Structures are given as C-alpha cells and as structure tokens.
Amino acid sequence: MAIELKGICKSFGEPPVAVLENISMTFTKGITCIMGQSGIGKTTLVNILAGLVPPDKGEIIGRDGKKISMVFQEDRLLNWESAISNVMLVTTAKDRDRAIKLLTEAGLSESLNKKAAELSGGMKRRVCLCRALISSYDILILDEPFKGLDNTIKPAIIEMVKTHATGIIICITHDPTEAEILGGKVITL
Amino acid sequence: MAFLKTVAVIVFWLLVWEVVTVLVASDIVIVSPRVAFARLYQLAQTVNFWVSIGTSLGRVLLGFVLALGCGVALAALSSRFKIVHALVLPAINVLNAVPIASFTILALMAFHASNLSVFIAFVTVLPIVFHNTKKGIENTDPLLLEMADVFRIPVWKRVLFIYVKTVAPYVVSAASVGIGFAWKSGIAAELIGVVSGTIGANLHNARIFLNTADVFAWTIAIILLSYVMERGFKVVFKEVLKWQSN
Question: What DSSP letter does each residue of B176-207 carry, written as one string?
Fold first, then answer.
C-alpha cells in the first residue's frame, strides 16, 4: 500500500507565489516525518494529500478510495462538546470503551466530560490525536500533533502514536527529536 | 428603583391620556383611561372576551410555529441545494414586500376566514426565520465542516452536533422578533377580514358601533397579551440558549 505525489505544484495569492514546486514523493506503510522551515509548504502538502486543497499541477496516485484521518494544524474541535463527545463524533457507539481507553492513555481520564472550550491547548491537542486515532483510516495525517504539549507528557504521547497508529502515517514536525523518537522515514522539504 | 421608575412612566402617560381626553372632550374620539380600564374589566367578565382571545392566540401561534418549522427547513434546503435557493428566494422576497392588507384580501378569496390569521402570521414570520436561519447556516465554521468531510461524519451527526449549535441563536433571535410581528399582523388580518369570534372582529364591531370604550379596552388587551407573550417567549428562548450553551 503506497500513495504517490507526482510533480505537485501549488501557488497562492495574486500575483501567484509558488509554495510547492514540482514535488514528487512516495509514502508507504509506516511513519514518514516531513520536516522543514515554517512557511515552506508542509501543511499545504498534507492538505493536498488529504484532498482539502487542489494542486495547481501534478497528480496523487493511490489515494482514491482510501480513508483518511487527520490531526489538523488547528484543533477543529467542537468547543461546546465534551472531550469524549469530540472523539465519539468520528466513530460509532460501539467504540466508546476504546475512546475512553485512548483518552485515559493520553492523560485525560479526569477530563472526559469537560467541554473542549475548558481544556488547555495541550489537552485539546491530545483530544485531536485520540479523535484521529479512533477513526477508521488507511492514511493518517498528523500536522504538528505534539504542538503545545509539555515535555513531561510528550514522550508518552509519541509512544501512543507509535503503538496505535497503523497504515500510512505522515507526520509534520519541526522538532528533529520528535522525528527521531517516532522513527521511520524523514523527508525534509 | 427600576420598578418605581416604570410605574412613574406609566402614571405620567396615563395623566397625558387623561389630559388629552379632557381637552378633546368627545367620547367618540377618545375615552379616559378610567373608562377604558373599567370597560376592559367588564369585558373580562364575559365568556366572549376569553373565547376571542383564545381563538386569536391559538391561530396566531399556529401560524408562528408553522413559519418557524418551514422557515428553518427551507433555509436548510436552500443552503444545501442551489436550485432550491434559486426557487425559494424570490418567493420569500415577495412575502417580504407585499403589504399585510393585500395578503389578507387575497387570502380571503382563497381560504376560509377562520384560517386567515394562521396564514397571515405564517407569511409574516416565514421570511424573518428563513433569512436568519440561512445566515446562521452560512456562518457555520468552514473548518469544522471540512473536519466533518475528512472524517466522513454522517449528515445526521453534522446537523445535530455542528449545525444545531451554530444556528440555534439565529433561530431564537428570529423567533423573538417574529412572535411580535405574528401577533400584530394576525390581529390586523382578523380586523380586515372580520373573522368572527376573534379579537379583530371585536375591534371591528366596536368601530362600526362607534363604541370607542370597547376599541380602547380591546387595544389595551392586545398590548397586555403582546407583552405577556413576548415575555413568555423570552423565557422559553432563554432556556433554549441555556441548553445550547450546556
């Protein structure tokens, strides 16, 4: 199972400023970390991969029919819903025990019923990660999933990703240490 | 303090009313507050008074509730399907532009008079609910909708968890404005259509027989009912918003 980007180009604005120029890469089963400076186009690349942004040029081979799950750059949580509701939103009632287990593993057992709006930035990020992990998927896209996590909890959350994530996993990170702990391939843009 | 201020304002305007009555000195043009309230008290002892109020209130509320349901449904369909929007928008704009009197006369030709205030309350409130709900739907966070697309969240969950929460304040705001409009337009339609056994018909009869005390008494009743209804709905809407924020 693989997904291939071929000659991807993307520009924004008027006059157009090229963000991605002739990008080709292949993602296979396992973890691939994408690294690079801010503004280089990492998020644009994964948004193209997820089908959220159309490329100006190029093709994506092997994505059709594949289910995608994602931790977005923004949290995109329902602030008026509890942590558990936000996770359950993307799955069915039979997964409730699994959702509680994931949230507990993420250190959120005390906050299952707290509204997303009441959670700290780091806690919200962990809810996003649990939501992405519980959803059924072939491709898991993680756009800076550890952003805002303090160093005491970060290693455990990285381990959690390594334990639960399956299929093709694409992770954007700024931190070489995160990429190293995650293991797998590293692509620098 | 606020209560005393309100009482003082009411007393002031009752005095103005009394002075105008003395100055005009014609029972056909204006009656004093004392006469108007005494007549209202007399009317309130009759069965006809309460039957008329019950009939008018029931019909206006029915029209209002129907408009609320149809307005929300049409706004949802209109936001989802461009063709529905293209078809519905001109009709809503016509409803907005046509005067209540024209609608009443047209409706009288088409419907039984007893349904008149239901219809008029409906056509008055529908555009308000439609536009507000549509605005609410359009203001739904696109990032959340994109998230729902990525996770393939089914439509019923999107409606229940994303749209309802976002759109509820807009619907509540439309309803709280619409209830007053429904009431006033409904009574006006009953008056024009002389729908028997209603507040409007009683007002009409009072005018025909130059019974100014009755006109004033019924008008006071309408104002009081309007106040009670708006207050009642505000309590309901407050509860809805409280539920929505929980």
Answer: HHHHHHHHHHHHHHHHHHT-TTSHHHHHHHHH
Instruction: Judge residue B199's burial from the number of C-beta atoms within 10 Å of its C-beta, 0-12 exposed, 13-18 middle, 19 or more buried.
Output: buried
Say how far apart CA B157 and CA B52 lie, in whole Å.
44
Average pLDDT over residues B33-48: 94
pLDDT value of position B10: 92
- The ipTM of this complex is 0.93
**Closest chain B residue to A134, measured at CA:** B151
How far apart are alpha carbons B94 and B96 in whole angstroms? 5
Query: Which of B145, B151, B155, B157 best tests the A interface by mutation, with the highest count of A CBs <10 A?
Result: B151
For B142-199, write each residue's pLDDT tens digit.
999 999 999 999 999 999 999 988 998 899 889 888 988 898 899 988 988 888 889 9
- Nearest-neighbour CA in chain A from B138: distance (Å): 17
Task: Say if residues A42 and A188 touch (Cβ distance below 8 Å).
Answer: no
Alpha-carbon span A185 to A164, nearest angstrom: 18
Out of A80, A81, A90, closest to residue B151 by CB: A90
Mutation site for B-interface testing, chosen from A78, A129, A133, A140 by largest number of B Cβ within 10 Å = A78
- From A75, A136, A78, A111, select the one nearest B161 (Cα to Cα): A78
The long-range contacts involving A114-121, CB below 8 angstroms and separated by at least 24 positions, are A114/A82, A114/A83, A115/A79, A115/A80, A115/A81, A115/A82, A116/A75, A116/A77, A116/A78, A116/A79, A116/A80, A116/A81, A116/A82, A116/A83, A116/A86, A117/A79, A117/A80, A119/A83, A121/A148
Q: How many CB atoms lie within 10 A of CB A164?
A: 17
Name which residue leads in pLDDT, B101 or A101.
A101
Share the mean pLDDT of chain B: 90
